[in-house]
Amino acid sequence: MHMVTALLGVYRAEIGLVLLACMFVAFLRERYPASVVAVLGACAYAALGLIDEKGLFSVFANPAPLTVAAMLVLSGALIRTGTINRVADLIMTRAQRHPRLALAEVTVGIVIISCFLNNTPVVVLLIPIVFKLAQATSIPVKKLLIPMNAVAVMGGCITLIGTSTNLIVAGIAAEQGMEPIGIFAISPYGIAGTVAGIATLACLSFLLPSDEPSIGGENGGTVQDYLTELVVPHDSDLVGREIGSLSLFSRSVVLLGLKRAGEIRRGDLKEEELHAGDRLIVRADGAAIMTLRESGRFELGIAADSETSSHEGTVIEAMVAPSHPSTGERLMDIPFLHALRVRIIGMHRSRHLAGPDLGDARVRGADRLLIAGSDDAVRSLRDNPHLMGVDISRTRAFRRNKAWIAILSMAAVVTFAALNVISIGLAAFLAVGVILVTRCIDAEEAWSAIDGDVLVLIFAMLAVGLALEQAGSVALMVGWITPLLEVAPTWSLVFVIYFFALILSELLSNNAVAALMTPITIALARQLGVDPLPLVIALMIGASACFATPIGYQTNALVHAAGDYRFADFVRIGVPLNIVVGLAVCTTLVLLN
Q1: Which residues are registered as beta bridge partners of 572?
Q2: Which keywords has UniProt assigned to this entry (predicted)?
Q3: Is this model's pTM higher than 0.85 or not?
Q4: Pairing of β 314-320 and β 263-265
Q5: Alpha helix (H) residue ranges in 487-531
Q6: Counting Cβ atoms within 10 Å, is residue 423 exposed (0-12), middle (13-18) or buried (19+)?
């Protein structure tokens, strides 16, 4: 025991580096999630006494992770109020009229939106739009998905709030004694990288595959579209209006046909006048269905009892079991519809839409149903052995009347932070309070918008970074590197830091690399007597602008799955893109500092 204590006393710095090497190996093997490896690493440092209790718990006072959480909630509010969905609808309207011009507009729009919103939900919403754009422009979708994702990542490097990585680096830098980094302090360098990256993508598009994805479908597998019917009530003010005058049709709600007196009409129905009892057959996503249900203008779906309303009770989701006795029969004849006071308001089928209408659609195993019913009916459905996964629907209606509050809240965060009125973290937390009290988003949804795995990873890696400082490992590494860099030109440090962070981030978590390298970078700059700010900015962008592997950035994995890409597809376009963006960013950093 005394020998172990003596070794820890003499070789603290070296032991800290050995533990760090073990963590890198565990990160690369991916046997456990990155957050688990980080937590275990922090525990190992604490168990060996390389970080004391006060230091370990001090990382929870770091504002960076909490600022990340607050920004995620604000992004969730913009989605919940339908703001992002409305932007997507406008894009698709433009794409139908001017497909080629829409591509340029979408590119610029992605850059602007990604400057201020977490780019993960942006890419999730972007994927189905890109599939539609590919259809409208006759450009293979695989030539669009990777570029659009890359543009979103580059746009996130233009402001301090564009990515969680930027906020982490800025938070650690402030704790290390640096002046707070402004929200637009990195903009010139991020813009330079974005312009160079877009030009590179345009010139090297021939490196991208042109075959069609074998999976994903027209939405890339990211959106669940349901078949439903909108019934015009007898006392509705819509009676006598032309279908083309209705404002409800968009990217999220597509008219498929009109059912009147048992006859289905299709084709151009814009000039058709609505009659009482007409059924509009539509394809809509879950959020759109819930929004229509909440509006009360239509009765939704089908029911055996005409008095059963879709506006009452709870909406649940249920999957039809392969063993269901009604498989192959009409949905209208499914037994529970006649035994319970429920209404089926939507039917989703993987790969394609059921039909010809909701009532006559033939039931198949794995069909997913949206069902509105009373609490008693829901309990009965949960006991039904022929239904699987019966649970309350997590899909919610858009709160469009609160959209202006969410937009103003986000704008206020950007404005106050840019003018240095208050810090980004405080501004974001105040904005979260506003959107919660005004019910832009419910508390439960707000907390679900926060990626707990990311926050755990950030806190754990902050502890690891602090442990390396307390153990002397940072000083030891800086001592090794300094003699090698003392003879190098000062400008070369920017390139070294950028591309070292880039290479590590292609293999490991961006946030882990940022949390680990920031104190080392600042200590190295001080040891060499140079301004640490350009090096810190190089680290920020280098840790995020990773395009050469599907695991280089979290959105890369989303696009890899949706577009059915191969690993080599990312390498082929990503390596030259990494080099060009890196050279543009680093050159701008050297010239402007």
Answers
A1: none
A2: Membrane, Repeat, Transmembrane, Transmembrane helix, Transport
A3: no
A4: unpaired
A5: 492-507, 510-528
A6: middle
Angstrom distance (rounded) from CA 220 to CA 120: 15
Secondary-structure percent of the chain, ordered helix, strand, coil, rounded to 5: 60, 10, 30
The token pair at 326 is 């009604």
Determine the Cα–Cα distance for residues 569 and 572; give it in Å rounded to an integer: 5
Q: Are 228 and 347 in contact (CB under 8 A)?
A: yes
What separation in angstroms does the CA of 220 have from each of 129, 145, 225, 515? Answer: 9, 10, 12, 33
Token pair 């300094």 in the structure block, residue? 482
Domains of the chain: 71-216+399-449 (no CATH), 225-392 (3.30.70.1450)
DSSP string, 461-480: HHHHHHHHHHHTHHHHHHHH
**Tens-digit pLDDT string for the chain (593 aa):** 444 455 555 578 888 888 888 887 887 676 877 788 888 988 988 888 888 888 888 888 877 778 778 888 888 888 888 887 777 777 767 766 776 777 888 888 889 888 887 777 777 777 777 877 787 777 888 888 899 999 999 999 999 888 888 888 888 888 888 888 888 999 999 999 999 999 999 999 888 888 776 544 455 544 578 889 898 888 888 888 888 888 777 767 888 888 888 888 888 888 888 888 889 999 888 888 888 888 888 888 888 877 778 888 888 888 888 878 888 888 888 888 888 888 998 898 876 777 788 888 898 888 888 888 888 888 888 888 888 877 777 777 788 888 899 889 988 888 887 777 888 788 888 999 999 999 988 888 888 877 777 788 778 878 887 888 788 877 777 777 777 776 778 788 899 899 988 888 886 777 878 888 888 889 888 888 888 999 999 999 998 888 887 767 777 877 877 777 887 888 889 999 999 999 999 999 999 98
Q: Which long-range contacts (CB under 8 A, 24 or more apart) does 546-550 make?
A: 546/153, 546/502, 546/505, 546/506, 546/510, 546/574, 546/578, 547/146, 547/150, 547/153, 547/573, 547/574, 547/577, 547/578, 547/581, 548/506, 548/574, 548/575, 548/577, 548/578, 549/506, 549/507, 549/574
Own/partner pairs, 51-59, CB within 8 angstroms, 24+ separation: 51/463, 51/466, 51/467, 51/470, 51/471, 52/470, 55/463, 55/466, 55/467, 55/470, 56/463, 56/466, 56/467, 58/466, 59/459, 59/462, 59/463, 59/466
What's the one-letter identity of residue 95? A
Residues contacting 582, CB < 8 A, separation 6+: 193, 495, 498, 499, 502, 542, 545
Match 């439960």 to its residue by tokens. Answer: 444
Whether 289 and 231 have beta carbons less than 8 Å apart is answered as no
Instruction: Report which of 209, 212, 172, 201 is spatially closest to residue 111, judged by C-alpha positions.
Output: 201
Distance CA 401, CA 386 (A): 40
Pair 181, 160: CB distance under 8 Å: yes
Q: Pick from 222, 275, 230: which is nearest to 254 by CA?
A: 230
Residue for token digits 């965060």? 413
Residue 447's CB is within 10 A of a number of other CB atoms, namely 14
d(CA 243, CA 270) in angstroms, rounded, equals 5
